[in-house]
Amino acid sequence: MKAFAQDIPGSLSKGIGAADAAVDNVLNNVDSVANTESNVERLFASSKVGETAADTALALTGAGGLVRGGIKTASKNVGAVTDGRAAGRMQVGSVVPNRTPIPVDRLDPKVLKEIQPDSRGVYGYVPRPDSKYAKLDFTDVEKVESGRVIRLDYLEGSKELDNVIQVMRAEGRSSEDIARRVVIQRNSQKMESRSLMTQDGVVELEKRNLSSWFKDPVGPSPDQAFRHYQAQQIKNSNFMTDDQVWELVIKKSMQKDPVMNTLLGIESKY
User: Fold this and answer.
1) What is d(CA 84, CA 57) in angstroms, rounded to the nearest whole number?
2) How many CB atoms lie within 10 A of CB 170?
3) Of 192, 190, 173, which is closest to residue 247 (Cα–Cα)?
4) Count of other CB atoms within 10 angstroms of residue 103
5) Which of 77, 116, 201, 266 is most buried (most C-beta within 10 Å)?
6) Where are the domains of the chain?
7) If we measure between CA atoms, which residue out of 261, 62, 270, 47 comes closest to residue 157?
8) Which of 25-39, 72-86, 163-177, 200-214 has the highest mean pLDDT?
């Protein structure tokens, strides 16, 4: 990681220095982290991803440009450390949260078509029998808490990607350039999150994806997404320019799943 810092501008070196300090802090508190050895191995593996993502961010924003990477925080209370990439972080551990269900009156009616209140649910809800999540068990505390950590990490990555979009717009990049970047980055984030999932969870997720419109285990390609949403608009007699379709691709790619968030006790504020 230090060798990597010597190859990039001083603006990123500070971020890498912070990364070293964060890693030292996590290692000094290993007794408080569940499954320490395997989690630390994941952390060092993720640092390689961070270096690659930092290179991409630096190229994207130009020499001496904005790099929002580096390690943001390493809290001994939650055992969490960001992995030094421009978008996202790797969770090493977490304090057990307050499992109070999100009040029904704060949920979108569309969400309630997919889930129902149930005291057996870890966060007070379970999928309805006809929901696409019906086969997943949201009554198992260990599985749900593990999924929640993964989901929060994914959502943090989405927030960082929002920042990348703002930077690209400020640079005057085209809607197509931004959309291509977003789709590729979202697929990358999905793969990173998948590395923390159980094998059964990955199999079920990929099965759903293969039966979706993009028919891919991970997600659509930029061109595939463009063609899909363009055809969808034409079918509805809503004719758009190419730029408008690419903007729709960005919007759709950045949408969060409020159903999954609610089942995992995450208020849809992202």
Assistant:
1) 11
2) 10
3) 173
4) 9
5) 266
6) 1-86, 96-270
7) 270
8) 163-177
